Amino acid sequence: MARASKFREATCLGCGCTDSRACKGPDGDPCGWIKVSYPLAVGVCTSCPEKVEVFDRQLALAEARR
Ligand SMILES: [Zn+2]
Ligand SMILES: [Zn+2]
Fold first, then answer.
1. What is the domain count for the chain?
2. What separation in Å is there between the alpha carbon of 49 and the centre of ligand 1?
3. Coil, helix or strand for 44?
4. 46 CA distance to ligand 1 centroid (A)?
5. I need a surface site. Which of 6, 23, 26, 43 has the fewest CB within 10 A?
6. Domain range spanning residue 46?
7. Is 23 inside a domain boundary?
8. What is the mean pLDDT of each run of 10 residues along the chain (66 residues)?
9. How far is CA 46 from the centre of its chain?
10. What is the pLDDT of residue 4?
């Protein structure tokens, strides 16, 4: 039985895929992270490059709140 790892999974802001449930890119290959933040549990996968802007904004907001 596999035990869940300690780190939180990140979820893609565009399609909602996660570390354990990668979506398929246009080539049929599993996606990867363009950007990812495990503290925020969000990321942007290679299928959703247009979400990088949203990701950057969320990260800037989180940093401003610190
Ligand atoms: Zn995605
Ligand atoms: Zn994906």
1. 1
2. 8
3. strand
4. 6
5. 6
6. 11-65
7. yes
8. 67 96 88 96 96 97 90
9. 9
10. 53
| Strand-pair category, 42-45 with 33-37 | antiparallel
From CA 44, how far away is CA 27, in angstroms rounded?
18
Q: What is the DSSP letter of 51?
A: G
Q: State the pLDDT at residue 5.
A: 53
Centre of ligand 1 from the C-alpha of residue 63, in Å? 23
Whole-number pLDDT of residue 66? 79
Amino acid 6: pLDDT:
61
DSSP 46: T
Note the pTM of the prediction, 2 decimals.
Answer: 0.82
CA–CA distance, 53 with 33 (Å, rounded to integer): 14
Ligand (nearest to CA of 52) = 1
